Amino acid sequence: MNRTGKYTVVKSCNDHGAVTLRDHPRNGTFHVVEYGDSDAEEALADLDAGSVVQLELERTGRRGNAWRVAAAETVESG
């Protein structure tokens, strides 16, 4: 399952590289735990809570709410 859209950073990147996001406009919560490449990881690593980012997300497993960022582009920095 893949998702593409705008997301707001709820909790910025922690020491393990995880980021919590909120989906627009449905307000679903997503936990990013993996990155497709270093560019995607760097794009999210420096964002503060409140920043908006355009992402392509891929589910990392069949269960749970863990996602992998395939592509990222900052829309608005918080």
TrEMBL record:
This is DUF7999 domain-containing protein. InterPro entries: DUF7999. It comes from the Archaea. Pfam families: DUF7999. Residues 2-76 form the DUF7999 domain.
